[in-house]
Amino acid sequence: MADGVGTWNVLEWTQVTTPKHGLEKFLLEAEDVIVHKTGVVLLNTDEAGILAVTNFRLLFVSRASKCIIELGTIPLTTIEKITDDVKLSSVPRNSEKRELLQVIGKDMRVVTFAFLPKTMQRSAVMDALKRYRKPVQLWELYAFQCGPSKFKNSNPKLRLLKEYYRIFGKRLLHLPEDESYIISNDRWRMTTINSNYTLCPTYPSVLVVPKSISDEELLQAASFRTSRRIPVISWCNPGSGAVLARSSQPRVGPFMSSRNHSDERLVAGLCSSSADSSASRRKLYIVDARPIANALANNVKGGGSESSSNYFKSEVVFLGIDNIHVMRESLSRLREYVDTHGTTSSDGTSSFLRNGGSTWGGGNLSSMSGSASTLGDTGWLTHVQNVLSGAAWIAARIALESASVLVHCSDGWDRTTQLVSLASLLLDPYYRTFKGFQALVDKDWLAFGHPFADRMGIPTVTDLASSSSTEMLTRQSSMGNASSSPLHSQSGSNLAGARGGATHNQASDNISPILLQWVDCVFQLQRLYPCAFEFSSRFLVDFLDAVLSCRFGNFLCNCERERQQAGIAEVCGCIWIYLSDLRFTGGRSHEHFNLFYDPSRHEGPILPPAAALAPTIWPQFHLRWACPSESHASEFESMWRTMNKKYSEMSKAKEVAESKAKDLKSKTESLSEELQKEKQKSISALATVNQVRRENLAIKRAVQSLGCRVNLSTNQSHTSSDLMASTYSDDPSDRSPHDLSVSISAIEDAGVVSGGNPLSRVCESMCPFRTKDGCKWPNEQCAQLGSQFVGLKADFGAFENLSIDDRYFDS
């Protein structure tokens, strides 16, 4: 770090202990700090901070950035080894003043922490790690303390049945309470003979077997197979009827002399074209994953391999894949190689500068092949290639020959699981999707009893009383010589609790990276077929990290029976919901999605030739700690992902802009319609006003024609002509309110005032119907109305010519 910022040299003694850890914002749900120490330096990066041991992980927070340092933060169950006896290949400055602690992880990381001397910091952290890294009871794991939270688990049995239904070409929406979900076709059937796990404790409760084989025959065949793991169907081709089956080794014994007719009929049923046992049979390959020498050695212990003469139209093939001990040591050598030759190793020194710069990559400059041979000596890539080649060979037999294949190793839960699941991935494009990958792991790894607790070195539930000592011993057979196992020397009465209370040495001896190796194989296939997988390499890395952390319950215990006994599905979270939630937050641009996925290019099986199965080191997983800059995806993929992310953001922005434009257009059209309506109302109102003006003028003229004068007056000084003009003006400014009064006065007649008979004079002078001969209306009694005409001079002819709208006279 520049100028020693945050390093050991700038720390003060007052910063070594603090009364409060201040780590609350970094803790997960139900995560508690057990012990924390300040002033600790992560030697890999020479960065100082707070180191805390929680009930879930070893947590390191940088003093400078106040952020979690991923390299120094590792779940407790991911830690494989801790040691305070650290020997550095290059001695750092002031190393004699430091107390060192090295943490080796199952995820390829090797980190070293430096503590101030004589402070008891290292001892406190060591004690906490020894206590909580390997809990005695299953219930002490963080997964039980955290609970399901928002990652609630679904029914694992229902998930398995849905996959069986998919293989049968049907759908299952829910799990009935009775056994009405059991289905079959003309070749295969589902059976619940193992519903109580009495047929085989490490098999799932529901199995798929040939329709021609009865449950009684299954029980008879179980005694002939190690751990009672009989041949059952894992996957079948719905078109050709060819199947991919799995089992454990047969108990043929020395000289391969033992036989079991029920087992032979069961294996023969895998090759039948229909339920009729007399129908023509297809070719059967019996694939033994072990080296042939190991298989022959198991004959002495009662195991062994099949004889093709006892199984009709069969051929036995050995793949030569080594056991779990070889794989564990191989990964250990690979981890050491990567740490030694990485950009920065666990001692904080670059591989280019190690040993004073006289060597490169651990080898002399005159012999550059030294480092390459070291990678080859790890043997890891060779083992990966063996598994890949075996799975590709199995897939080709089923896809090209329509042959059935039965796969087994010793117990059928390590190498068998790798081969069967990898071959299924090659054969079925559904397994190359997110949902299919989950279904594949749930079926072949979880339901069929890969012993995750043993392989990860974590506790499991105490054995049920029905578990036999034979099962415990045979589980040890896949780990080497059973006679050398500590369990082999124990009495039968002690075997019942052996798996739940295994010693530290036993647990360490059982640990092996079988799942990690299989996921590495999946990555190699992704590299060969970049358009065939919906998920990316980053998804595989996060999947492995979640499994190793034991944060979720899916991969706890050794089999379905034990997980059911512990109530895992009800009390622990689900890893699949967690991974799905991660993808949901990022959408299609999330790094779990493969940008190049094109299902139309690989709609059927993918069958890689042997020449193409040359694996490379997996940079995203193997190099992420020692070579962080080189561990990222290729530059082209990174650029493509960046461009795709920007395109996604621009597409979203475009959708938002189009939505806003659509809203604005809709509002504009609405306002335009309202404006048109207002304009129509205005035109109509103006026409009404003009009509009223004309009619009012007509009324005025009519009244004036009757001999009357119209007088308009207001409380303001306006003339009659001004008021009339204002009243009928079109200018809105002239619409000022007035107290308008209208008065009509009659025009006086001079003759009226001069005397005489008023009625006679009125009639004679004003009535147009009065003649010399008399009145034309004698019967109308107009004399009674005379008083209304006194003093008025009217023109009755105007009334004949006047037309006035009746509405002006309505009350």
Automatic annotation (TrEMBL):
Residues 475-504, 656-678, 719-738 are annotated as: Disordered. The lineage of its organism: Eukaryota, Viridiplantae, Streptophyta, Embryophyta, Tracheophyta. Pfam families: Myotub-related (PF06602). PROSITE patterns: PPASE_MYOTUBULARIN, TYR_PHOSPHATASE_1. Substrate binds at residues 298-301, 323-324, 409-415. Residues 168-622 form the Myotubularin phosphatase domain. It comes from Rhynchospora tenuis. This is Myotubularin phosphatase domain-containing protein. One of its GO terms (cellular component) is cytoplasm. Transmembrane segments: none annotated. One of its GO terms (biological process) is phosphatidylinositol dephosphorylation. The active site is at 409 (phosphocysteine intermediate). Belongs to the protein-tyrosine phosphatase family. Non-receptor class myotubularin subfamily. PANTHER family: MYOTUBULARIN-RELATED (PTHR10807), PHOSPHATIDYLINOSITOL-3-PHOSPHATE PHOSPHATASE (PTHR10807:SF8). One of its GO terms (molecular function) is phosphatidylinositol-3,5-bisphosphate phosphatase activity. Residues 475-494, 719-730 have a biased composition (Polar residues).
